Amino acid sequence: MTKKIIVYTILLISTYSFTQTTNTSPYSFFGIGDQAKLKSVEEIAMGQMGGTLSSEYQLSFTNPASYGSLLWTTYVFSGGTKINNVDDGSNKQTSSATSLNYIALGIPIRGNQGLAFGLQLNTAVGYSLFSRTLDVDNNLVESNQYNGDGGTNRVFLGYGYKFPFNLDLGAEVAYQFGGIDHSVLNRRLGVQLATRQYTTSYVQGFSYKLGAIYTKDLKQNLQLKLGSSVQMAYDLTEEGDEYIYSLLNTGDGTIIPNGIKCWCWTS
Known about the structure:
With 267 residues, the protein is mainly beta.
């Protein structure tokens, strides 16, 4: 019963965390957002060097060949807080976001094989930007408000095999998915209605990775390890809707759509 409660709690936390705002960076305006570190805590602590990291009880997300060294069933999860300090020369701003980075399970098989699967934060979008245009008298002529949120996650399954001649091979397949929203609100002096462009999209696709680790015993308590992992080229598909509509600005700040035009697109 206790194990079931722990599992359900972890699933609830992971589901909640992966649906929250996980980034507050102006650079996430581009593409599908800022790329998360697809590495374990141990790899990050070693300067993000994980190509040859293999352990009996730890997971290395960089090289799937490392899963063949597992001898113990391993549960791992990690969260973190990202702090951004932005300075444009005249203004400074600090923002932060907390999220669950990954949750994964590693399972040994027959002492020389291993499986690992889990959920990772892949990319994150989260920004709120404001630009304005002033006339020669320093009066506001036009303003644009840019907002975005969302991102993508990845579900992965990795397999590693440990050969008796000091060679480990592995492979990983991952499914990336997520939703991203962008909006631009434009206001102009002397124009009664504001205009808003709102885009919502869903991104998905598969990716594949291959890995190898070679171990050479040099002398007692001294080994030479060579490792490499290759991320295969892959494509993501994107589908969504785009809306453009005018707005009525009320005195209390409430935005009321005045008319709407919508079309759908696929890329």
